[in-house]
Amino acid sequence: MMEIVETGPFNTVQDLGRPGFRDIGVSAGGAMDPLAASIGNILVGNPAGSATVEVQTFPFKLRFTVPSVFAVTGADGNYLLNGKEQLSWSARQAHGGDVLELRHPPKMARAYIAFAGGVDVPLLMGSRSTALRGNFGGVEGRSLTTGDILLLGADGDGLPLPTDGLAAVTPLRAMADAFPPVLEGVLQVRAIPAGEHHLFGEDAEAFWGREWRISSRSDRTGYRLTGDPIKPVMTVEMRSHGVVPGVVQVPPGGEPIIQMSDANTAGGYPKIAGVIEADLWRLGQARPGATIRFVRSSHDEARRVEKAVAAYIEDIRQTAPMVKRALKAMA
């Protein structure tokens, strides 16, 4: 059990979302960086989809009221436990009364705190994720507030809990060959041309060639981009169609919108591209004001990167139990 001591707006309980309900207007939602949330859970002995705390406004503090095992993943920079800096992407033991503090990360946008057993909030439509627009899920469908008490569930795998030493190599370091580097401060985001790409004529090529800045009006639903507008060469009447995370739509103003975790379930703006799924977690770690460039990709490349991510997760999943058993043997 933990008590929230300090928090800002939009910090919520999130897991990997509730897919399968878009036909009734319910977005899948879930963590903006599902890779970080998954790895944190594996490190503490949970299934990858257990509920975590997603922190996107800092500082954030909580107090453990009982002994717990936790891991902080996602954002760069280390956190504090009782005022002492600790290594992220590793499982640690907390005692009753310990205070965990997350400071503003140097570059990235979101951190995830996974707890052995998972955060115990009601399960709705197969998920514990908070849907802020729908006001359901998580803790009463809202952001966490000071004084909230979070309970722990029973998602752990029953293996002995480590006090130290169980850590993961960060995704960008472990999969350096699978993800393009940030070039001169510009995040390279791979995408595939979408259904209405051809309607933009020369502006379609401009879309790929220019840099876009993530607007301060961005949120979990979508990232609004600012830059020289692009416009279709013809007016086409479009019916509303299904939308998923990663779809890049162009509203009449000409500045694209990338649908994110809480993506609308349907929309009528033309689709110029779709970000490959394996790159969405990097977007989830991009702050408002960050600059991105779209890189034309392919289905084959998307599958190749997905396999690299799956292999990374599986390697940690296979390694974590062995390390736990070794720690028990040395105790």
UniProtKB/TrEMBL annotation:
The organism's place on the tree of life at top rank: Bacteria
Keyword Hydrolase found: yes
Domain Carboxyltransferase, chain residue ranges per copy: 23-312
Gene3D superfamilies: Cyclophilin-like (2.40.100.10)
InterPro entries xref list: CT_A_B (IPR003778), Cyclophilin-like_dom_sf (IPR029000), PxpC (IPR052708)
Keywords: ATP-binding, Hydrolase, Nucleotide-binding
Pfam families: CT_A_B
GO molecular function (one): ATP binding
Record protein name field: Biotin-dependent carboxylase-like protein
Species name: Agrobacterium pusense
